[in-house]
Amino acid sequence: MAPFKIGYFVGSLSAGSINRVLSQALIKLAPEDLEFTEIPIKDLPLYNYDLDADFPAPAQALKDAVEASDGILFVSPEYNRSIPGPLKNAIDWGSRPWGSNSFARKPTGIIGASVGSIGTAVMQSSFRSVLSFLDAPQLNAPEAYIHYDAAVFGEDGEVKNESTAKFLRHYMDEYAAFVARVLAANAPGHIGDIELDEDKLTR
User: Is 23's pLDDT higher than 90?
Assistant: First the structure.
């Protein structure tokens, strides 16, 4: 079976972001049937409705990358108890112009690391409301609020604590299974498609 193509966002623009380190750890621990491509956000202008008619190239590249992905993974810090501005801006671009929401029906996962003890829990709660509006199915369990310890995470993505590695491996296994379930549910012929399969409607 061909691998699932997973586009991932890192919600921080910092080169030394601990969430970028976390993203590399997740990729290393993920099952082999997931193939990852980062979707960059640093070159996006601020979203402006006036630009919908002449969509900026970085925004169009983002939409194309989301649409080419089987699933989307968000790895993000928490800023002021909510979604970092650059990441929210990227989501706004990906959902526009109105009627061309690139995130619709894409299976998503949210995970984040913080040096604080609540590990991005409030940001993730806020983020789930946004993804619900975008019709983007979410992995709801296991929840993953990572307390970041530099002694545990190597810069290359190595996880030096087996308990932490086991949890992150489990998260990625569950995410892979979730992607497979959502894509199966979205297959042609399911209720909600433009052309309904009459045989399936009678099951």
Answer: yes
In tens, the pLDDT along 149-170 reads 999 999 888 999 999 999 999 9
* CA separation for the pair 2, 33 (Å, rounded): 7
Above 50 in pLDDT, residue 31? yes
| Joined tokens for residue 53 | 């008619």
Three-state secondary structure string covering 11-60: CCCCCCCHHHHHHHHHHHHCCCCEEEEECCCCCCCCCCHHHHHHCCHHHH
Among the listed residues 75, 68, 70, 79, the one whose alpha carbon sits nearest the alpha carbon of residue 29: 75
Q: What are phi and psi of 27, to 5 degrees?
A: -65, -40
User: Where does residue 95 rank: exposed (0-12), middle (13-18), buried (19+ CB within 10 A)?
Assistant: buried
Q: CA angle, 75 as apex, 173 and 165 as ends, to 5°?
A: 45
Distance CA 136, CA 85 (A): 20
| Residue ranges with strand state E in the chain | 4-10, 34-38, 71-75, 108-114, 145-147
- Mean pLDDT to the nearest integer, 25-42: 97
Task: Evaluate the CA torsion angle 16, 21, 23, 27 in order and state its sign.
Answer: positive
Query: Whole-structure pTM over 0.70, yes or no?
Result: yes
Report the distance separating Cα 69 and Cα 7, nearest Å: 6
